[in-house]
């Protein structure tokens, strides 16, 4: 991650400071970045990071220390196109649940990303905006963050530049930002495409090698997946501060737009989870706690109505709530939107139950489902609630 500051460590994330769910993804002898998703079993990254790899390992760095988990399986977007950097999405299904101290992330599902400030997190190279990244040998990989702002979509940039870029972003599927230094001379999108805006000025950062697959957060939700950087010219104009392709001031970066790909992500996660119930009579309401790691408690949401259109999405918001069980101690809280896509009438919401060796009574927590879109709850209800019991399996002998 290239930093504008002269002191790159200013933006280094130390264990315990957050973003513990942003991971280093090692594919054979190369590496990129990824994001641990809700459920603690899968990491979102770029297809070009892991394609053709014989071995993928996911490295965590948290307040509890370092951990490495192997990837049990991969899901690459079936229409991944390396030439035009389209559909550059992949999921790594972990061989075991992620460490408890690694933060889980939800997807950013709205399409209002343009103009919003985003936090970029990754394990890539660092450097300075006026000279680009430093690719000298390093003995360790550090996690860094930077801020920037989404400016346009990839197809909007293509339309504005015409032949100024030699790839074809799929409509609405990519988000583009430029790396400004506060001057109009290095405002790439302003100088070349008429999007005059220096964004965050000298506060901005940029992706660099090693950040591929890393997240761009809006708030605490992952809105983009880092795919590429580019140095653009048009009609003899070049905003790049040093005319080199090195993540310096005046360059642009492209991200896969998570809101566009949420259907592929959601359905790929559902397909990979062979433990999820598919009928109401398969739902387990009493979950054995276990001694370590996490077990999954499932909530099954079913839609029994009629869609107004065959292509209509149906959704509900949901959030966990403490009963006698406490979030963070007995289970991991979740709050997100569940979408049932065309052809789907049901899906599960997984919640991680935390294992321990403490002798304690059985405890309960709730899941509230609300704000239905494309359907409604029966009997005029505003919220549906289900309960799960965490069954203690620790034996005490006096």
From TrEMBL:
A cellular-component GO term for this protein: membrane
Signal peptide region: none
GO MF entries: serine-type endopeptidase activity
Top-level lineage group: Bacteria
Residue ranges constituting the Peptidase S1 domain according to the UniProt record: 1-270
Pfam families: Calx-beta (PF03160), Trypsin (PF00089)
The entry's keywords: Calcium, Disulfide bond, Repeat, Signal
PROSITE patterns: TRYPSIN_DOM
Any one GO biological process: cell communication
PANTHER family, per the entry: FI18310P1-RELATED (PTHR24276:SF98), POLYSERASE-RELATED (PTHR24276)
Protein name: Trypsin-like serine protease
């Amino acid at each position: 991650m290239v930093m504008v500051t002269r002191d790159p460590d200013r933006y280094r994330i130390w264990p315990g400071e957050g973003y513990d769910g942003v991971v280093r993804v090692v594919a054979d002898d190369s590496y990129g970045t990824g994001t641990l998703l809700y459920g603690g079993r899968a990491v979102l990254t770029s297809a070009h990071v892991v394609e053709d790899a014989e071995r993928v390992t996911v490295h965590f760095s948290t307040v509890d220390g370092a951990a490495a988990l192997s990837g049990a399986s991969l899901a690459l977007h079936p229409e991944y196109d390396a030439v035009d950097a389209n559909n550059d999405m992949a999921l790594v299904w972990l061989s075991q649940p992620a460490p408890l101290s690694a933060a889980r992330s939800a997807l950013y599902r709205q399409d209002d990303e343009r103009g919003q400030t985003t936090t970029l997190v990754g394990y890539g190279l660092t450097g300075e905006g006026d000279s680009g990244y430093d690719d000298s040998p390093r003995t360790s990989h550090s996690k860094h963050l930077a801020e920037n702002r989404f400016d346009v979509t990839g197809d909007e940039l293509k339309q504005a530049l015409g032949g100024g870029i030699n790839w074809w972003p799929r409509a609405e599927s990519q988000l583009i930002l430029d790396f400004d230094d506060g001057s109009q001379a290095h405002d790439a999108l302003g100088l070349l495409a008429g999007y005059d805006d220096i964004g965050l000025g000298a506060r901005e950062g940029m992706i660099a090698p090693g950040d591929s697959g890393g997240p761009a957060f809006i708030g605490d939700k992952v809105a983009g997946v880092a795919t590429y950087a580019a140095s653009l010219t048009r009609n003899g104009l070049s905003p790049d501060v040093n005319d080199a392709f090195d993540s310096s001031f005046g360059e642009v970066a492209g991200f896969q737009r998570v809101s566009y790909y949420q259907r592929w992500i959601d359905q790929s996660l559902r397909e990979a989870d062979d433990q999820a119930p598919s009928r109401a009579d398969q739902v387990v309401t009493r979950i054995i706690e276990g001694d370590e790691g996490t077990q999954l408690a499932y909530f099954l949401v079913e839609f029994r109505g009629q869609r107004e259109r065959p292509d209509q999405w149906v959704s509900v918001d949901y959030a966990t709530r403490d009963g006698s069980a406490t979030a963070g101690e007995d289970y991991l809280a979740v709050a997100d939107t569940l979408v049932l896509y065309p052809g789907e009438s049901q899906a599960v919401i997984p919640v991680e139950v935390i294992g321990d060796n403490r002798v304690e009574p059985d405890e309960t927590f709730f899941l509230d489902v609300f704000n239905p879109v494309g359907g409604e709850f029966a009997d005029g209800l505003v919220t549906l609630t289900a309960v799960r019991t965490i069954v203690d399996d620790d034996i005490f002998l006096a």
